[in-house]
């Protein structure tokens, strides 16, 4: 069979079945990966509202956004919000991106009760598959 006929046959099959579906899943994460908030502790009362958030990660590595390696990602801090059901990480005041690979950051919160949660993002700023996120904690700023 000539090369032209083979290529035409392949093209016909691709046209018939359509293009491969885009993967809805993010970069694979290790089964035992775990993100966690080192500080502040759950239930902390933070006077003045200025605090350091220290971020931890087990069984994965932290790297800047854009680095495409297995089992690595960068932190996102979710403040007073839920994990997005559509698998996206918005860019707004409730989703703080740490694309330089930071593992601690100083934030300021207004008086009131607040929730904090970490979510790891891959090189494309998308959650891993399965998503790697911390337990949600609550803090109060008097």
Automatic annotation (TrEMBL):
First and last residue of the signal peptide: 1-24
Domain DUF4399, residue spans: 53-141
Alphabetical UniProt keywords: Signal
Highest taxon, organism lineage: Bacteria
Official protein name in the record: DUF4399 domain-containing protein
